[in-house]
Structures are given as C-alpha cells and as structure tokens.
Amino acid sequence: MKTIRFTQHAREQIVERGATEEEVSLTILNGKRERAKKDRLICRANFQYNSFWNGRKYAIKQVAAVIVEKEDETTVVTVYTFFF
C-alpha cells in the first residue's frame, strides 16, 4: 500500500470542512475516482453522518479528496465535503 501524505493545506481543509484523515484515507482507498485538472484525481465517497453541520442535520457526508498519485506515494492536495 502506498503512503498517503497530506499537504498542510489539505490538513487545514479537513478541519475546516468537517472531515477526518481517516475518512480521507478511506475515500482514497475505496472511493470513486475521476480525472481532475493538472493531472490530478478526485476521489469521492459517501459516509453515514446523521448529525449536525452548521446548524442543520444531514444524513450523508460526502468526502472528496484531490490527489496526486506517484509510484510510491499519494499526496492529498485538498479536501472538500458535501452534506445532504
């Protein structure tokens, strides 16, 4: 298994957007992958949430990680979350 490395920006976005490093890692390992700009990939996965975010209750949290894959490591560039 490749090493997953988080940039400082990605770590900040994980906190700001309500995700966890574990969710991001699971998203990279098991999520749906799509091509993104600048030879990057975006990985998406949905997680049961059933909790509150910014004062509203949501059932699902989607984590989207923008990554750069190299032969020996995966670098997380940024992370997005979507609640529904």
The residue-averaged pLDDT reads 97
Q: Name the helix and strand elements from N-terminus to C-terminus, one letter apiece.
A: EHHEEEE
Anisotropy-based shape: elongated
Strand content: over 45%
Distance between the termini: 31 Å
Per DSSP, the total helix count is: 2
Rg over CA atoms: 13 Å
Provide the structure class.
alpha+beta
Draw up the topology in text.
Layout: E1 3-6, H1 8-16, H2 21-30, E2 32-36, E3 40-53, E4 56-69, E5 73-83
Parallel strand pairs: 1-5
Antiparallel strand pairs: 2-3, 3-4, 4-5
Describe the structure concisely.
The protein has 84 residues and is of the alpha+beta class. It is built from 2 helices and 5 strands.
Overview features:
84 residues; alpha+beta; five-stranded mixed beta sheet; 2 helices; 5 strands; 23% helix; elongated
Overview of this protein structure:
- With 84 residues, the chain is an alpha+beta fold.
- 23% of the residues lie in helices and 57% in strands.
- The chain has helices at 8-16, 21-30; strands at residues 3-6, 32-36, 40-53, 56-69, 73-83.
- The longest helix is centred in the first third of the chain and has 10 residues, at 21-30.
- The relative contact order is 0.28.
